[in-house]
Amino acid sequence: MKDPNNTRDTVPRRGSPLWSYVVCVTVVGVAALATSLAYLSVGDLRTLVGAPLFWILALLIVSGELKPIITPGSTETTGATVSTTFTFATLIYAGLPTALLLHAIATVATGMLRRRALHRTAFNVGQYTLSFAAAGLVLLMSGVTASPTDPWTPHAFDLPVTLLAGVAYFLVNLVLVNAAIALHERTSVLKTMRWNLGLQLLVHSALLGLAPLVVVAMSWSAAFVPLFVLPFIAVYINASVSVSREYQALHDGLTGLPNRKLLIMRTEEALAQARHEAERALTARGRDHEPPRRVGLFLLDLDRFKEVNDTLGHPTGDRLLQLVAHRLTHSVRPGDLVARLGGDEFAVLLPTVRDARGAREVAARLRAALNEPVRLDGMSFDLEASVGIALHPDHAPDFELLLQRADVAMYVAKENRTGVEIYSPDRDRNSPERLGRQGQLRRAIDRRELELFFQPKLFLGNGRPVGMEALLRWRHPQKGLLTPEQFLPIAEQTYLMRGITDFVVDAALTQVARWWKAGLRVQVAINASGRDLLDSALTEMIAAGLLRHEVPPQALQLEITERILMNEPAYAADTVQALAALGIPLSLDDFGTGYSSLVRLKSLPVEEIKIDASFVSRLREAGDDAVIVRSIIDLARTLGLRSVAEGVENPETEHLLRNLGCDAGQGYHFQPPMTAAEATDWLREHVTKLQAPEGAAL
Known about the structure:
With 698 residues, the protein is α/β, with parallel strands linked by helices. The protein has 28 helices and 16 strands. The strands form 3 sheets. Strands 8-9-11-12-13-14-15-16 form an 8-stranded mixed barrel, surrounded by 4 helices. A 5-stranded mixed beta sheet has the order 2-3-1-6-7, sandwiched between helices. The protein is elongated, with a radius of gyration of 37 Å. It starts with 16 loop residues before the first helix and ends in an 8-residue tail after the last helix.
């Protein structure tokens, strides 16, 4: 199976330790190959060309190099090659120069057919040359001098020599390969060698152990040699089936990336290694040692990916995910792991990272790679992603908590549109207390513990009611009456927000229908959260409610926070326009906190601007707040909108607002929030004002 995380064809940076190592092994190996080939005489070459045995061996070595036996836990890079058996047999039977010549040809042919990078093919030639040269040196020191014109067949008492030669090959090859892998993945050589060592030893023992039998078959007849292919084919098929099953269990079917199961395995290994190094550092008291390394886990989510699926269909979305997987894999450091968790959510494991700054650099590189425009089906896409980072041991001791906190950081990045965020406990909405509150809130919705209170908005000139604002409360069985600030932030991050919105819309329309039937034709305003405006079903929900309760759209007003429209203009605009088309009057809440431009404000279907209470509460103090309030009132008047001041708590503030020309006010100075029954009684007392010639503002 092709490993999508394999980046070994990437050319090492010139001057880096890996680059120096590759160059050194390649140069020494090629020099050894050239020196060895110089010992082939003209007679040896004629024998090679004219003997069918050597053509058979060449074919078997090339075929074996092209099709490695991949066992569970290995890849095309680390799988054992059948060519080892036939090259080692050639070494014993016809000498080192012949074996090196055939294997060099096989290595170059494999590199060309598999389109491997030139530096990788050259390194493989040098690596195998030095490994087989070590085995040949053992045979030479034991007095074995074989050649194509003078072949050597070992006897029973020669087995220790061949065994020692096989051990020399295995050890040299093991060190050369794992040193390169360690430099590539920036880890220790010993750690790399320990990985899968037992299986490698077993497989190579079998491959090298068959070589003397192949030599014996050669000495009898070249026709016997191809028979050894049959058991190799059986082993290859069985291994392929086993690996295919393992691969499917540990990898994502669409992108070929590791799945959650493999991510857990690799993360646990990295955490165990980090703990071991931390313990070793503790024992090194009094001596200089490097600071304990960290393990980083990223959670990456594509922004607005749903648009692609909804607009162009899932096949295009799948191709886009495959492209994303390719970009991520080739943007991480060697040794890092990219996994797909599902949908458009990916995870990146950094088995070792210096600190939070280093993790941010990797995350920034990932986002930069994704930001490159993508062309599919003749269309260009601009991809963006939100990345959450959690580090061990700073933020979590195990995988599950590490993933959870990376998820928290990712949602913070998405909400704040910052792109990359590192986990911070201060912004964790998933603390045990909050999770417990989430479960209680879910039960509160089912038990109808939520309730709407109502607070009037009054014209400052004559005290006539402008309308009533519906305010959500939770009658908690133990903690009493809770305000939205105490539970809505939890709901906005979960599916619970949809249920709460359903309740608020239905409860508000139920109450306004009762008032209208009783002759109290007052407008009721409800608040829409950012999550509501990103849900296209909001308009359908309100339309169905108006029809069910038989009230006109003007009976309901939707208050939208200015900050939401500024942060999510593209998504919120569709819902806002749909609501305006339905005939729902809109109010811009908390005005002055979202940095609206005049052009943007003029384009919104808004009838009312509510001045944020933070400005109104400081209105009596000489300073910028009075200037801001005056400017907002003047702006509203210029645009033909009604201005409503929130948080009016005393007569002095009411007087100042009236002098500034503010249209209406709302706050405890006029009337605190009331239950539905209390609000009904209050409206009946003010019914004459509602029915005055000036009329309610509907």
